[in-house]
Every structure is written in C-alpha cells, then in structure tokens.
Amino acid sequence: MTRHTKPKRRPGWLFRLGVALVAVAFSAQAWAITVDNVVQMHKSGLPPAVIIQTIQSTGSTFNLSAADKKALEDAGVPADVVQAMSGSAGGAPAPAPEPAPEPAPDVGGGGEGTDDLERLREQEAAERARIEEEARIREAARRAADQEREKMRAEERKRVARALASARSALDDGRYYEAARSFDEFIKSTADQTKPSVQSAKLGLADALKALKLYGNAAGIYHELLAAGPDSEVFEPAFKGLRTCSRMVAYNPVTLEALTNYFVGNFSQGFQDDYNYFLGKFFFDYNRNDEATRYLGEVSEKADDFAEAQYLMGLVGVQSAGEDAESSDFIKNLVKANVHFQKAILGASRSDDARVKHLAYLALARIAYTLEQYDAAIFYYRKVPADSTSYVNALHESAWSYFLKGDTTRGMGIFHTLDGPDWEDYFLPDTYLLEATVFTNVCRFDYAREAIERIRQRYLALKMPLGQYLAEYASPDALYQAFVLKQTRKGVELPRLVRMSVISNPEFYDLYTSVTAYRREVARLKRERENFGADLAARLLATVESRQQERTLALGIKLNQILQKLDDELSELEVQVTEIRIEIDEAAADELEKEIAKANQDGDTSPVAAAQAQESALVFVGDKYVTWPFEGEYWSDEINNYRSYLTEVCK
Q1: Which CA distances in Å does 544 have to 202, 216, 520?
Q2: DSSP code, position 93
Q3: What pLDDT sits at residue 644?
Q4: Across the chain, how many H-helices and E-strands are there?
Q5: Confidence class of residue 586 from pLDDT cuts 50, 70 and 90?
Q6: What is the mean pLDDT of the chain?
Q7: Please, are residues 64 and 86 in contact by the beta-carbon 8 Å criterion?
Q8: Looking at residue 267, what DSSP letter applies?
Q9: Are 66 and 170 in contact (CB under 8 A)?
Q10: Which residue in 8, 68, 173, 509 has the fewest CB atoms around it within 10 Å?
C-alpha cells in the first residue's frame, strides 16, 4: 500500500488562482452601471434595446428604490428598460456563491497532484477567456451605442439644416411671415434652447420681425441673444439689429447695463465704436455721466457716431459745470464742454450730420452767452440756419444777446419779427417782457403798456384753462388719453399755444415717437394675426402690449412734468408783469414830473399850462414805431439784420 502524506499548500498556484478571481470581481465592479448612467444613456438618444443589452452585458444589478423608479419615470426612461433593471435585481435569484476549492493534493507523491494542477490551469484559462469575451461584448455594445448616437446626431443635423435652410430661404426672398413662422416652429421643437442652431433660429426670427417693422419684439429677441456672449456667432449681428430697433422704438431697458460685462476688443474697430457709443448713450440717458463719458470717449474720430458722442460729452460738461458761476469747476467744465462741441462740429461736417452741427453751434452760443461774451454768442447763433429745428431758439436768444450788449435796435428788430404769424405757435413770453422794458427805458409808456396787455391776452389767459386741464386729467394715464388720444371732456381742453409748446419739447417728442411705434406694432399684430399664426401672434402681442404700457406711463409722467413747468412759468410771468407794470407807472410819473418842472422853469405855472404839458408829453410819442428795416433783400436769412427805428423821448 502506498503511503500518502498530508497534502501541503502550494502558494504559487493558489496565488495565481486568487488573482484571477479578484480580477473577475474587479472587472465586474468597474463595468457596472448605475441608475444615473441609464438616465444619461436615455437622454443621449440610445434606443431601449441598446440600453438593455448594455445592462445585461455588464452584468449590472439594481435594487431599485421608490425614488429610483420615480427618477427613471421623470426622465422618460422606457418601461421595458426599467423592467430589465428590476429583473436584474429581483427577476431571477442571485447565483449561489461558488464553493471554495478543495485543498490541492501533494503533487510530490503521485499523479493525482499533477491532474489537480492541470485542472486548475484549465479553470484559469477558461476564466480568462470568459473575461475576454465579456470585454469583447462590452466593447461591441459601446461601439454600437456610439454608432447609434452618431447616426442620430447626423439625422438631427440634417433635420436642422433642412429646417433652417427653408426658413432662411423665406427670409431672403422677403416672405417674412413664413420665415417668422418657420423659425418659431424650429425653436419650439428643440428641447435644448442653448444650442447654436436655436440661437441662429432666434436671430432669423428677430430679422424677420424687424423687416416687418415690429421693432419692439425684434429688439427683445436681439437683446436676449446678446446674453450668449461675444464668443457666440450671433453676438455681432444681434447687437447690430438691437441698435437699429432701439432707434425706432427707444428700446433702452436698464438691463442693457449687462453689456458692460463683455470684452469686445477682438471685434473690428467699427463694431467697437458702435458698441461704445451705444453704452455711452445708455448711461447718458440714465444720467450716469461718469460711465457715459468713459464709453463715449472711446468712440474713434472716424466713427459715424463720433460727432454725436462728442456732443453728448459736451452736454455732460455743461451739466457738471452747474449754475454757480463762482464755483472753481464752473469755468473749467464749460471750457471742456466747449472743446467737445467744437469737435462735434468738425465731426458732423465730415459726416454731413446737420442736426448735430446745429445743436453744437447752439450749445457754443449758450456757453458764450453764459460767460457774457455776447459777440461770440451772436456769431454762433447766426451759424444756425433758418431750416434748422433749432432756428427759433437761436434767433430768440440772439435777440437777447444784442439787447444785453447794448444794441437795442437789433434786438428789438428780431423780437418784432418773432411776433409775426410765422412764429405764433411758439411759447416766447419774455419777448413782450423785453419789449415792455425797452419801451419803458425810452419813455414810450403807451407802447410798454401795450406790450404788457399782449402778455396778458396771449399768455396769462392760458393759466386758467391749463390749471383746469391739469386738475381734470391728474393721472399720467388720463393725461395720455386726453393729450395724445384727444379723449377730453367738453370744455376742458388745452389751448393751442400750450399744446404746441408741449409738442416742441424734445423729451416729449422722443417718448411720443416710441409710444406711437408700439401702438402701430400692436395694431399690425392684431391685423395680421392669421399670417403669424394664433400662437406666435399671441406671444408677440403680449410682449409689445406690455412695453407699450410702460412707455405710455412714462409719456404720461413726462406730460405732467412739462405742463406743470409751463404752469409755473405762467405764475412767474404774472409776478413779472405786475413788477414791470409798477415800473412803467413809476417811470411815467417821473417823466411827468420832469415836464411839469420844465414848464415851471419856463415861467408858466398855471394848471392849464401843466395840463398842456402833460398832453404834449403823451402826444410826443407819435405814431407806432413798428417798422422792420433790413439790410439787403427781404429773405428769411436777413432776420438777424432787422432793426427797430425806436427813438428815445425821455426828457
């Protein structure tokens, strides 16, 4: 009988077997997928079959909780995938753990040990083969999933390209309603609104709306696209579209300040100039002068907006100077403003921008007038031509300059002209005040009293109806309805002169233009509802009606401010008329005393002689002075040369 010794452990082959088993366990753990992985695969567009195959090939197991099932359901994971996941956990019993291997026999004692070693080697080789096969399956599943995703992406790209190409074709051909509908449908059909294709579609929609003159809605979409930042392909065209629309509807919400967060130094100089001017004007409108100056100062001399940028910087300088002539900054800031206005004139001459040029000339004249440099003021006032919207202001103020420099005949000649029918709708009460003052100074007391009477009839008579109007239409909305829509109560209406004064106010004009543009947009959307489609038309209408209400409220507030200011001016005018009437009476009394004194000196002190002296003083005034001599032929550009042949009759 052969003796068998007690089996000994063989650390070498046992170690190799342990490594193989650990490798299997580690591999399974590394390839196991989670609930989040399944959700991600579904969102990436993998078909349910591929997801199930991946779960099975990786040997992943799940123990789905109620929260897991809800997460899968919320993500839209198909029911068969959830069922496969549930089956992996509870559909079949988990395999029993393999029994630990029996201790290997001692191979040193006979052939049985060799057989055991060979068997272990075969098991090890089989295990490696199984692992390699699983790896091949997983790799095949991954390649299949990648191919499926790429196929879906390719199909999506084709769909996007077809849809956008069709919409752009309609836009290029001028079929703007069709283009707007197509772009909108594409936007609504895309879940991820941050995709470049969606941004491109929104840009196309805004371009179509702009072409249809729906500037309010277009501006809002352009503004939204700018949030994508300068790296986006739509940033530059969206900004240009926004600039165009903002000119038409005064689109200037406070949220535009976010544009200061972007660096645009990589864009062309032309784009940078437009961008800096736009932000500078934005801050100027909100009275944030430091920021306005910073951006406006970056606009280069060759830019189209250079002249207006310099003009706005000049206005900032005037505002900074204030009204305190004794302040150390008063002259300094006015000098700076003067330089900007000069640059504005040069820039406007190059770009042929007559409006800015005339405004800059008027500003230079007013600075000279403020500094009591009346000859310089007159020089600049006369640079404003008769066809300019600033002409009447320049003419009126130049008359004061003539008067203050001592050239009464020129000043009165212009004032007499402004009293003509061509300017009857302008609110210029101090014209008559100056006339009354001049007439009093030269002892033309009857003329002075006539000037005062003209003030009473033409201007002070406005105070009562203006007060009734403000009391009747007290709220901004009521003022808008009454003034703009002319929905007034009978007998409570605004006098024409006051109405024309409001209309000529630049701030009112800007707001009124904006509100009118929104009103037209609302009307067009209601009229063309079928061309847009009910859904798109409703959304566009809601947007523009909201903005119309905002601007309407702003216009009502501005109307109240303008009318209250006119009412205050009329109240002040009443005081001035009372004061100058007293001055006229006192001057007339003094002149009569002089006549009486002169008669006494001549030796005739009888009451009859005194009465005759008084009569002669009044008769001496003679016929009305109203003549308008001029130099050269009678043309509108000669008004500055009109003179009054008013003579002094004081004793």
Answers
A1: 17, 6, 10
A2: P
A3: 59
A4: 27, 0
A5: confident
A6: 82
A7: yes
A8: S
A9: no
A10: 173
Coil, helix or strand at residue 330? helix
Fill in the amino acid letter for 55: I
pLDDT digits (tens, 9 = 90+) for 386-404: 889 889 899 999 999 998 8
Would you list the domain boundaries of the chain? 11-91+112-160
Q: What is the pLDDT of residues 610-648, one digit of tens each?
A: 444 444 333 333 333 333 333 334 345 555 555 555 566
Backbone φ, ψ for residue 78 (5° rounding): -55, 150
What the block records as the tokens of 603 is: 């030796």
Q: What is the mean pLDDT of residues 438-461?
A: 89
Task: Report the 3 state secondary structure along 154-211.
Answer: HHHHHHHHHHHHHHHHHHHCCCHHHHHHHHHHHHHHCCCCCCHHHHHHHHHHHHHHHH
Amino acid in the structure at residue 647: T
Q: Which residue is it, tokens 């059909």?
A: 189
Q: Is 106 a residue whose pLDDT tops 70?
A: no
Torsional class of 291: left (φ above 0), alpha (ψ -120 to 50), beta (otherwise): alpha
Four-residue CA torsion sign, 319, 320, 321, 322: positive
- How many other β-carbons are positioned within 10 Å of the β-carbon of residue 40? 13
DSSP string, 358-409: HHHHHHHHHHHHHTT-HHHHHHHHTTS-TTSTTHHHHHHHHHHHHHHTT-HH
Q: What angle do CA 219, 223, 227 make, to 5 degrees?
A: 165
Torsion angle of the four alpha carbons 279, 284, 289, 291, in this order, in degrees rounded to the nearest 10: -10
Answer whether residue 6 shows pLDDT above 50: no
* Residue closest to 84 by CA, chosen among 110, 57, 108, 105: 57
Q: Note the pLDDT tens digit of each residue in 261-290.
A: 999 999 999 999 999 999 999 999 999 999
Say if residues 187 and 201 touch (Cβ distance below 8 Å).
Answer: yes
Q: Which of 15, 9, 204, 227 is nearest to 106 (CA)?
A: 9
Residue matched to tokens 């100062």: 297
The tokens describing 433, both together, are 């005040």
Cα separation, 239 vs 220, whole angstroms:
11
Instruction: Report which residue type is found at 507.
Output: E
Does an H or E element contain 423, and which? none
Pull the structure tokens for residue 489: 């109560």
Number of Cβ atoms within 10 Å of the Cβ of 509: 13
Tell me if 498 sits within 8 A of 466, measured CB to CB.
Answer: yes
**pLDDT for 24 beyond 90:** no
